[in-house]
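[job 4471] stage=fold_predict status=RUNNING
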Amino acid sequence: MYTKTHFASEERLHEQHKYDFFIVHRLEHNFIIDKIESLHKQYCSGNNIVEEMAQFLSSWLAGHILDKDKKYAKDLNSKGVR
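[job 4471] inference complete, writing structure tokens
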């Protein structure tokens, strides 16, 4: 799953540059992965999850990427990471 690869790469940067909120951010990643895997299982079982998936992804984009990821990017940029 691409998401796991992306999160692992991001978390290596967090650890390498001692991001203060690394543990919290990793827990959020774990939650997101668990949710995606749960939705995938539901889909494979024949459940209609379109609405739930759309709502989850919308929430994730707004809450995680546009808020949490911007905060860590700002922190890493202040440490010279580009």
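[job 4471] summary: Residues 2-78 form one domain.
[job 4471] exit 0
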